[in-house]
Amino acid sequence: MADWTRAQSPGAVEEILDRENKRMTDTLASKVTRLKSDSDFTSMTGLLTGSVKRFSTMARSGRDNRKLLCGMAMGLIVAFFILSYFLSKART
Question: Fewer C-beta within 10 Å: the chain N or C terminus?
């Protein structure tokens, strides 16, 4: 062992190792939380991509669905902002 461990009692060394272990556990937990939120964001991106494809198909279908198309566009925009708000809150 290093010189600093010889000068301290075994209980003090154990306490230092305990603190270091807790610090490393907290660091790992925060990394796991970040990875989970990134995974959630990726799944939401896939959901939005599918919605955009359906939206584009409906837009090309003609002018009969203009009100529906406008409502869908506004709904998607609102959903995007709500989603980004919740994701920003989850990261903090």
Answer: C
Please state, in angstroms and as integers, the Cα–Cα distance from residue 70 to each residue in 66, 78, 83, following that order: 6, 12, 20
Cα distance between residue 29 and residue 58, in whole Å: 44
Length of the chain: 92
Residue 36 CA, chain-centre distance (Å), reads 6
User: Which sequence spans correspond to the domains of the chain?
Assistant: 7-60, 63-91
Extract the tokens encoding 45.
């991106």
Token pair belonging to 33:
């939380």
Ranking 50-54, 58-62, 73-77 by mean pLDDT, the lowest is 58-62
Q: How far apart are CA 67 and CA 79, in angstroms?
A: 18
